[in-house]
Amino acid sequence: MPPGPKGLPLLGNILQLPTFQFLRFTEWKEQFGPVFSLNLAGWPVIVINSLEVATDLLEQQSSIYSDRPRFIVANEIMSGQLMLPLAGYGSLWKKLRKASHEGLKSQSMPVYQRSQEIEAAILVENLINRPELWAEEIKRSTASSIKAVIYGTPPIASIDDPVVAFISEMGHRLVTATMPGAYLVELFPKMLYLPTWLASWKREAMERYEESTKKLKGFVQHVREHAENGINDRPSFTGQLCIAGDRHQLTQTEEAWLTGSIFVAGFDTSSSTFQFFILAMRLFPGVMKKAQAELDRVVGRQRVPSVSDRDDLPYIRATVKELLRWGVTLPIGVPRRSQQDDYYNGHFIPKGTLVLVNTWGIHHDPNIFPDPHEFRPERFLDPTGTIDVDIPGTRNQGHAAFGFGRRLCVGMNVAVQFQFINIATLLWAANIEPAYDQDGQIITPTNSPAGWVDEGAVVRPAPFRCNIVPRFSGAEAILSRAREQSLAD
Ligand code: HEM
After folding, report:
1. How far does residue 230's CA lie from ligand 1's centre (Å)?
2. Distance from Cα 146 to the centre of ligand 1, integer Å
3. Rama region for 430: left / alpha / beta (φ>0; ψ in -120 to 50; rest)
4. Is the dihedral of CA 51, 57, 63, 66 positive or negative?
5. Which atom of ligand 1 is nearest to the CA of 87?
6. Ligand 1 atom nearest to 97, measured from its CA
7. How many other C-beta atoms lie within 10 A of the C-beta of residue 195?
């Protein structure tokens, strides 16, 4: 196998991995090169640290590297193999992926534009009114926006909205179940055949599946009934699934889980990324000023920005790219598992190897992104101010935040449009300014791991105090007029 750090007998490298594994991986990259191997108590692992290796394996050899680890409890029992990001690579995954792609591809984005614009206006009004609650407000707004994209529902008032509470709880339960050591059966798969009266963990996981299926089916049924009764919901992913009818050949259970999968996959990633944006603006106020100059030039101060301004706002688009590079919410992406023996550059990669991509390390490689800790949208612009993303291995994105190959994030268009309109609306209306402590000293947040929160799959910046103040008189009135007008429409 590729070279790697020496571990202990039996345990291998397990005890050498800290909470933020990507930091250790980045150190090891210096020692062992762009792909190294680990041994986690007998389980072979390779860690990819370069765009070139990621492209060679995950894109060029995608028939070998598109599977996920098994996750017996989270995938096979708790979600009946229907949670798209966890699902094994096979015909069921292909069917679900195809149906999700139809509703989330770039040509479908105009469907969600109005919802995302209204949600952005409400978000910014709330941030101005309650800046001390910015982290919570971003969670509420993201949940509201994703829920609207999926089910076409009106804006939600609180994160305690029952659908959101259920979906977040389900997501956290599944992520917790994928953590190493969460269930013994992951180490001893034969335990799966124990009868439920002997294995309470199995009974509980099966009950969770039944309960989740019932709830998710209820959400889809609600959309279908509205459509049949002529009630005009906002256009949505589920609405389109209902229109497609039998074309995707999905059962009602598969349809229900597909909508839940997309909600779970989109919520924490998008909210954490936008939280990183607030941090970036506090640390790099020069970027905020340049973005605002572009907004003043293109949009003016008489109307709020729209998704339709996209082509004329290259600096904002470059800011979205830089945010996805700098604020890596999934620092080691979502793991893969190799499906057959393979050789790479003279090294053996056995079937069943766990494959991790150190996305954080790639995004902070100074050979690709000079001064990688700086937040600098200009790195994605040529001297004329036009977007330039000539970075091989990034599929013209300029970064690898959405992964690689056949398992590339299927929601990336929704994610980018969401970040774009939120950034444009917030910087159009307001400045993100420092808050002061009791001694009158500026509170300066940090972008070091000491200031991040680890939530299992995603990483977020820890909340810090800042002020969010209108940039010109009339901004708030225009925002609320835009919101009311859109809601009335
Ligand atoms: C900034 C926000 C987001 C980031 C950084 C992100 C990142 C990722 C990554 C790294 C993967 C795994 C890719 C791989 O294995 O190579 C993934 C998968 C996925 N994402 Fe996203 N994502 C984001 C937002 C969204 C949104 C908004 C949605 C839905 C609307 C979504 C839906 C999904 C789904 C369903 C998968 C599983 C795809 C599969 O396994 O086939 N994501 N995402």
Report:
1. 33
2. 13
3. beta
4. negative
5. 40
6. 41
7. 8
Cα of 228 vs centre of ligand 1, distance in Å, is 31
Q: What confidence tier does 48 reach under pLDDT thresholds 50, 70, 90?
A: very high
Q: Whose CA is nearest to atom 14 of ligand 1?
A: 403
| Token output for 256 | 């229900």
What is the distance in angstroms between the CA of the first residue and the CA of the last residue of the chain?
60
SS (H, E, C) 111-174: HHHHHHHHHHHHHHHHHHHCHHHHHHHHHHHHHHHHHHHHHCCCCCCCCCCHHHHHHHHHHHHH
Residue 234: CA count within 13 A, CB half-sphere: 28
pLDDT digits over 220-276, tens only?
999 999 888 877 778 899 999 988 888 999 999 999 999 999 999 999 999 999 999
The minimum-distance atom of ligand 1 relative to the CA of 415 is 27
Assess whether the C-beta atom of 401 lies below 6 angstroms from ligand 1: yes
Residue 409 CB less than 6 A away from ligand 1? yes
pLDDT at 193 over 90: yes
Q: Ligand 1, from 89, 178, 402: best to mutate by most atoms within 8 Å of Cβ?
A: 402
pTM of the predicted model, to two decimals? 0.96
Q: Does ligand 1 lie within 6 Å of residue 357's CB atom?
A: no
Say what percent of the chain tops pLDDT 70: 100
| Spatial contact of 177 and 78, defined as CB atoms under 8 Å apart | yes
Q: Is the separation of the CB atoms in 362 and 49 below 8 Å?
A: yes
